[in-house]
Amino acid sequence: MLEETPTEPFAAPLPESGGGGASARRMKHRRRVVAEWIIIVIAAVLVSFLMRTYVVQTFYIPSASMEPTLQIGDRIIVSKLSVDFGTIHQGDILVFKAPPAEHCGEVVTDLVKRVIGLPGDHLTSKGNTIYDNGLAVKETWTHSEPLGTSIGNVIVPPNAYFMMGDNHADSCDSRMWGSVPKADVIGKVFLRIWPVSRIGFL
């Protein structure tokens, strides 16, 4: 009688040395990195949106009405907080929504001009001199003469500003379309960032 040869006991295959675990860890790491980048991008977009809406915004100068202070092609940064939480003074440069009844043939959304009159001020002009409440305005900022269109007898309404371009004779401003309501002011210009050769605070 033939005896059956005893069989070897069944041996389960040995797991590969950490291969599957390492692959799972790599996949988990990739997913974590992707999730982190998605969060970073969303946060960056949100911060950019909030900054642009409530803090600062950049603008491009398309015309010569503010020469020599601001020239065509200049890029400026506007502070919105300085309007909401600060004080607007005579001589400040503001960006504001263009008046709906613009009389100069320009189709623009926003304008940039300098504050000449504050709420309640009485403005007039004689020759190239502007008078504010009977006193000659000392235009210590750069500007171009002659004055051009004169200022009649204007009393600036409450919560509004009388705006003029520094290039007086070549500026369509409050002399043509009246004072600008504070609600239409976008922000105060505080920095020119382009061109590089003219970077500086304003």
Number of domains: 1
Q: Please report the first level of CATH classification, the CATH class.
A: Mainly Beta
Structural class: alpha+beta
Query: Any idea of the CATH topology?
Result: Umud Fragment, subunit A
Q: Uncertain spans, ≥5 residues at pLDDT below 50?
A: 1-12
* Rough outline: elongated
Name the average pLDDT.
87
Oligomer kind:
single chain
Helix % is: 10-25%
Please give the largest β-sheet: 8 strands, antiparallel
**What is the H/E order?**
HEEHEEEEEEEHEEE
Question: Radius of gyration in whole Å, from Cα?
Answer: 33 Å
- Distance N to C terminus: 112 Å
Q: DSSP helix count?
A: 3
CATH level-four homologous superfamily name: Umud Fragment, subunit A
Count all strands and give the number: 12
The amount of beta strand, in percent, is 25-35%
If classified by CATH, what would the architecture be? Answer: Ribbon
Written description of the protein model:
By secondary structure, the protein is an alpha+beta fold. It has one domain: Ribbon (Umud Fragment, subunit A), CATH 2.10.109.10. The protein has three helices and twelve strands. The chain has helices spanning 19-55, 81-84, 174-177, and strands at residues 56-60, 75-79, 93-97, 110-117, 122-126, 129-132, 135-136, 154-155, 160-164, 180-181, 185-194, 200-201. Strands 1, 2, 3, 4, 9, 10, 11 and 12 form an eight-stranded antiparallel beta sheet that branches. Strands 7-6-5-8 form a four-stranded antiparallel beta sheet, with no helix packed on it. The longest helix has 37 residues, at 19-55. It is elongated, with a radius of gyration of 33 Å. Residues 1-12 have low confidence and may be disordered.
